[in-house]
Amino acid sequence: MAGVGSRASGVDPVAPTVPRKGLCGGASLPADLAEPLAALIARRPDLALAVQWYPELTSTMDELSRAAEDGAPRGLVVGAEAQSAGRGRRGRAWRSPPGAGLYFSYLTRPARRFDLLTLAAGVAVRAGIAQAAGLHADLKWPNDLLVGGRKLAGLLAEASRLGMPGGAVAIGVGINTRPAAYPPDVAARATSLEAELGRAVDRGAVLAAVLEHLGDTLASLEAGGAEPVLRAWRAASPSSVGTTVEWSEASGARRGITAGIDDTGALLVRTPTGTERIIAGELVWHLGA
User: Fold this and answer.
1) Of 19, 68, 75, 200, which is most buried by a Cβ count within 10 Å?
2) Angle formed by the axes of helices 203-222 and 31-43, to 10°?
């Protein structure tokens, strides 16, 4: 997924400039991605996609954020075959080995409903994976896609100058497409499309479907379509109701049972002292408990 750092030394992007739409060249774009992306861009010019793809970056999110600061328009996608310093939510490392996944960041410039952007992105990524690969993942609040309790994909949204001229949100996406040699602690919690399906997966088809759903879902949200996002997210998140969670506060450890999300995307947790509304922080999930 996205991470922090500078462009990898000696790595050239597909093209040095960011067009308003279309592929940034093609010589360095992996062959399995080029044709599906070109077909999507030709079929859906309204998505205003511009795609840059690198052999390796420290972070797709960092590269995208620099482009956003330079005025890149909505629809810019920065991807890499590998990341040396990818990260997930709350600064966690996101393992991004070459050839094992799709690692990219997507630029949007919303004017409202910032509170639901991460949930909307999760709905879109899930729908794209289901369309292209036939695998229906579960959503776990706020930004994970799971299959059998193991992580298939993760998202990260980072905002800059929200509600102001030039405001932008970078949405980082990491999807495990193939099994990889992860460290033991990661391997126990991770899965991939090919591991779950038992067959090869067309990465290009997955990427194109995810980008199309991202563009459509975020545009719908921007136009006032919060209810479809909330309905789709709730239907795809069994853990958001009836799951034991724990967290820490200054007063000590807390524990409760999830009770869904409210209309702003906050997680509701029932505790012995009442219902808590959680908008951020670190939770320990006892899935299946």
Assistant:
1) 68
2) 40
| Extents of the domains making up the chain | 22-235, 238-286
- Look at residue 12 in the predicted model and tell me its pLDDT: 32
Q: Is the pLDDT of residue 100 over 90?
A: no
**Distance separating alpha carbons of residues 208 and 172, to the nearest angstrom:** 15
Assigned fold of 22-235: BirA Bifunctional Protein; domain 2 (3.30.930)
* pTM of the complete model beyond 0.85: yes
Q: Give the model confidence (pLDDT) of 24-65 as tens digits.
A: 644 478 999 999 999 999 999 999 999 999 998 989 999 999
Question: 22-235 with 238-286: one CATH topology?
Answer: no
CATH of region 238-286: 2.30.30.100
Q: Give residue 286's pLDDT.
A: 93
Which class for 164: exposed (0-12), middle (13-18), buried (19 or more C-beta within 10 A)?
exposed
Beta-bridge partner residues of 249: 252
Upstream peptide bond of 142 is cis (omega within 30 degrees of 0): yes
CA 52 – CA 28 distance, rounded (Å): 9
CA angle, residues 93, 96, 97, in degrees to nearest 5: 135
